[in-house]
Amino acid sequence: MAPEHNPKLAAILTLCASAFAAASTFMAKVVGSGTLGPALHPLQVSQGRFLFAFIAISSLAVVLRPKLTKPNLKLHIGRSFLGWGGVTLMFAAAVYIPLADATAISFLNPVFAMLFAIPLLGERVGKWRWLAAGIALAGALILLRPGADSIQTGALFALGAAVVLGGEVILIKFLTKTDGPFQILLINNSIGIVIASLAAIPVWIWPSLMQWAGLAAVGLLMISAQAFFTNAMARAEASFVAPFFYASLVFAALYDAAIFQVFPDTVSILGAITILAGAGLLAWRESVRKGT
Fold it and tell me: Considering the entire predicted model, what is its pTM?
């Protein structure tokens, strides 16, 4: 039975999802920056994210015993590779640049998904959607801060994450035609833990107790964010829900300021506003296009 249409509850659930998603990336920064002990490599942090998310989702599957259908393994494997790559790049970016900057650049995700949809889904893109993409990409260029090498590196990691996760969105669109949300999450985290574990072998070190706790927080916060967002999407149109997720930028800035005393500067604010303007325009055009 489908959940009742409830936009207000959907908005609240999306705000919760944005807080959890930002907190997950923040904890990845804590573990990866050496705050809880020797800095863990982003590949190991990513493995921790998939490990604890897999434990949570598989435990839930044992309790709920959901009905599963025959999966398209090729699509699931491709989606999982892209998801793992995007998450790892995002965690690496969070170590080098302010969390708010990395989060803002990640909002280019739907822009790249739109670009990939042209050749892969055969979608036609009108002038308004091209304009939205151009504005968002201009904001990313601002945050790349040409000339500031140390910051530029982190921004490039975040930009790479947005590109890879944009590709993941396309594969998710294919998967949603045959698989339910829970099955997609379960298979993604099952494949993801294998990919992440193999990739982390060369850099893996034994975490301290506090680092284990931090890695657990990364995974559990991320799976919680996914659960809240999935439930929000079931209760309202995507065009209504998506803008509320931009609150993760605010949460990211608050977490960074509270713990690392990192505050957004003028360039960060200008870049973030520009990206949000482009992403917001794209979301509006999507709602118009779908008649929502």
Answer: 0.86
